[in-house]
Each structure stands twice: as C-alpha cells, then as structure tokens.
UniProtKB/TrEMBL annotation:
Protein's UniProt keywords contain DNA-binding: yes
Protein name stated in the entry: MmcQ/YjbR family DNA-binding protein
Keywords: DNA-binding
Organism: Actinomadura craniellae
Keyword Disulfide bond: no
Entry-linked Pfam families: YjbR
Superkingdom of origin: Bacteria
Gene3D superfamilies: 3.90.1150.30
UniProt GO MF annotations: DNA binding
Length: 122
C-alpha cells in the first residue's frame, strides 16, 4: 500500500500541481516547492514513506486527534502548521491528495500576487 500511495503523491505533485522536487536535505527527503516555497516534504527512505504537509492549525489538530498514530506533528518543521502523515493506507488516497492541495493552496496564498502561479484546475 505504501508504494501505491507514494506514486499517487509524487504523480500529483509533479503532474497536477506543477511543482519542482528538490533534495536540499539529502537524497532521502524530496521537497516539493512552488514559486520557491515548500508545500510538501516526502521522507522517501521511511518504511512506509511519510509525507509532511502544511495545514490550517485547527485541521491539523483534528487530524492528529482522529489518527494519533498516523498523523503526527511535523517532523523537524513548525508543529503548529505542519503535519507528518504515515503513508500506510490509513488515510485514503483521495484524502491525501486533498491535504496536498490544501497545503499547496496555503503556500500560494502566502505569496505576493506577482509570484503566484496560475491555479491548477480542481
């Protein structure tokens, strides 16, 4: 299940959201950026992989309460805004993609208008 979700996450980020994947922390952590700002971090060497996304603080807390072993405070990130999700199938593919889009949208909203890319279709 982890590999299937990994492929869904990477495909969504690269193809739909048009982001750039970089490895500033070494080859085991793919960082997805839009307009130079991170919206997702994928710990590729974890088994199962782990995905960190930026969420509204209240939504992040609600997810952590609902999935305490699968949605964790952001690993090495601002724990108020960032959440790390274990890609073991507990959260469904569609829910993960929705969370990725929310993270992307939050990061875009924080950019000056001149730096915002055209929005991908919903």
């Amino acid at each position: 299940m982890g590999e299937e979700l990994y492929e869904a996450v990477t495909g969504y980020c690269e193809n739909f959201l048009g982001s750039v994947r970089e490895y500033p922390f070494g080859e085991s952590a793919g960082v997805y950026k839009v307009a130079g700002k991170m919206f997702a971090l994928l710990a590729e060497d974890s088994q199962p992989p782990r995905l960190s996304v930026k969420l509204d603080p209240e939504e992040g807390l609600a997810l952590r309460a609902e999935y305490p072993d699968h949605v964790l405070p952001g690993y090495h990130l601002n724990k108020r805004h960032w959440n790390t999700i274990v890609l073991d199938g507990t959260l469904a593919r569609d829910e993960l993609l929705t969370l990725l889009r929310q993270s992307y949208d939050l990061v875009i909203a924080g950019l000056p208008e001149r730096r915002r890319p055209p929005a991908p279709d919903h």
